[in-house]
Structures are given as C-alpha cells and as structure tokens.
Amino acid sequence: MPQSPVPSRRGILLGTAAVSAGAVLTACTSNEPAGKKPANSPANDPAPAADDRPGKAVTIGFAGPQADHGWLNAINDNARARAKKYSDVTLEITEGSNDTAAQIGQIQTLINKKVDVLVILPADGKALTQIGLQAMRAGIPVINLDRVFASPQAYRCWIGGDNYGMGLNAGRYIGEHLKNKTGAKVIELAGVDSLELTRQRTKGFDDALKNYPNITKVARQAADFTVESGQAKTAQLLQAQSDFDAFWNHDDDQGVGALRAIAQAGRDDFLMVGGAGAKSAMDAIKADDSVLKATVLYPPTMSASAIDIARAVAQGKGVGGLAELEIPATITLYSAVVTKDNVDQYLPTGFS
C-alpha cells in the first residue's frame, strides 16, 4: 500500500478525494459529452481536468510497483485511462516490480528513451531517490506519486494521499458515534508495521481518540494488506475481545477477510470503519447489512491527476484557478469519509 509524506510537510490540501486532484487543474472545458459515466470505469472515467486542447506532443513514462493489490491495480488503470483522454499524450508504462533494482532498471530504460516527463510511484521511496535525482538532472521532470523520495530535489511535484488524515478521520467518525457512551472500547486492524504509512495511520487514529476521553483502544493487530491476513488477524482479535464498540481496519482489501471472520463469529455488536475506498466496501456500506458503516478514502485517482500534472509540466502550463504560473511542488489529497449518506457520490471511484 502507499506511503506518503508526514502531513506536517508543506502541502496543498484539496477539497475532496472523490474527484481527482486534477480537478484543480481546470483551465478549459472538456471534450467529453455531458452525462453520467459508467460506474465501473476508472475514476468514473472523468473528463480531463487540465486544458484538454491538443498541444505539444508529450511522452510520459509511468513506473510503479507490481500491481499485486486492488489499490495498485486501480493506480495503473486510472493512469492509462487518463492518458487516453489526451490526443497529444503517449504513455510508456512499465510492467512494474516490487524489486527496487528491477524498478530502477525500468526507470533507467525510460530515461534512455528520453521521455518528456516521468511519473513514478516507487516501491520504496528512499531506495529509488537516486534514480529520481538522475532523471531530474537529465532534464526530465519527475512527478513523484504517493511514496515520497527522500529528497525534494528528486521530483518536480509530489502528489499523494494523507495517511495521517486517514487515521484522523476514521478516529473522528468513531469518536462522534461513541462520544456519549461511557467506557467505550475500540480495536484496530493495522496494515504492515514496518511501513511508515501504517505508523502514520495509527498516529492519526490515536490523536483523534485523544479528543474522546470516554473511548479506550483495547487491542491492535497488524496484518499484511491481504484478504487472508485480514481474516486470520480479525479472528484472533474477536476471540480475545468479547466486548467492544468499534473496529477500525486500515485497508479494504484485508477488510474483505475481516468481514468474513466477523460473519463467521456471528458478531454484529459493533461498528466497523474501513480504509482506502474499495468498491466492495462501498457496496457493503450502501447495502447497510453488515457492521461496515464507513470507509476512509485513499484515492487511486491520484494517478490520473499525476498524468494531468505531467502533461501540464511538459507543455509548460500552469494550474487554472491559482494565481501562480507554476504547478505546485506538493499536492496532498483529502481522506474523505464515505457513509451510506454519501456513498452514491463516491461509488464510481471505488476500485476492485
């Protein structure tokens, strides 16, 4: 799963995660017909948010990790779909790898091809910093997607999600639902503890709960962002905790397993909040027939916005709606909370 800078770093907080961050790049009207888009297409197949009038031909190199997770698949799908919207964009996309040496090699190939701009979601931001620096020194602007490089000199613009904000908003949602309950208890199913993103999500959650002194976190387990681990770790938590009021799960993929374990245990005496924004989670929220009542977004539409930004940078364009002539250095997406009251708005962005 993704990893983003600590929220206290410089950033621009955009309004809502349901719309790609590229929505602030609006400079002209779209060439797409009006009307509702199919809900099963990437990011609801939105019209390009940047100036979509044909301009200078641009080749964008896109390199990400292996798409072995629903969110990462959605990242690739959104990038491809966005690039197809522009007649002046050619997308060179790599196969993707979780091996840092292999990903560095793939990016080196794109540099050797002299692409106009690179969009890179590194498997490990720190480990790939040098290849980002190499591209920038070669005159190829880098759009660093989500997992941040160790040096701001390695990218022209960083765009990604807010892991701390995910935890914060999940905690606030739970806190507001339990604020009048004396001795309320919550448990947490985290991701992978070796990842900074997991620590950020937990910190945000814990910080939010500090505002609700009646609530105590009584248990926490770390899983591996997989269905199997979600099911196994949730089963352990349910066995150890016979009485609690809320359950926060960091990731909707592992949440599929968590819901299985909850159903098998016959438990319906608490509310559950998920994370990331999978379509399966949103479907369950809309059906309102399980403990899952909300999910906090970590929008894969960020890759569509990265294509918008890459094209604008390569063509020397700025951002419509801002006084500045240049693309911002950092764009942080907002972690919206999806509930049954607003799920129809966000459902088109859900990923499989």
UniProtKB/TrEMBL annotation:
Record localization: Cell envelope
Q: Where is the Periplasmic binding protein domain?
A: 60-317
Single GO cellular component term = cell envelope
The record's annotation in InterPro entries points to: Peripla_BP_I, SBP_2_dom, TAT_signal
Quote the Gene3D superfamilies the UniProt record gives: 3.40.50.2300
MF terms (GO), sorted A to Z: carbohydrate binding
Name the source's superkingdom.
Bacteria
Its main subcellular localisation, reduced to a broad class, is other
Determine if Signal is one of this entry's keywords.
Answer: yes
Q: Which UniProt keywords apply?
A: Signal
**TM segments?**
none
Chain positions covered by the region annotation Disordered: 30-55
Biased composition annotated in UniProt, kind: Low complexity: 38-49
Keyword Acyltransferase in the entry? The reply is: no
Question: To which protein family does this belong?
Answer: Belongs to the bacterial solute-binding protein 2 family.
Can you name this protein?
Sugar ABC transporter substrate-binding protein
Q: Which organism is it from?
A: Streptomyces inusitatus
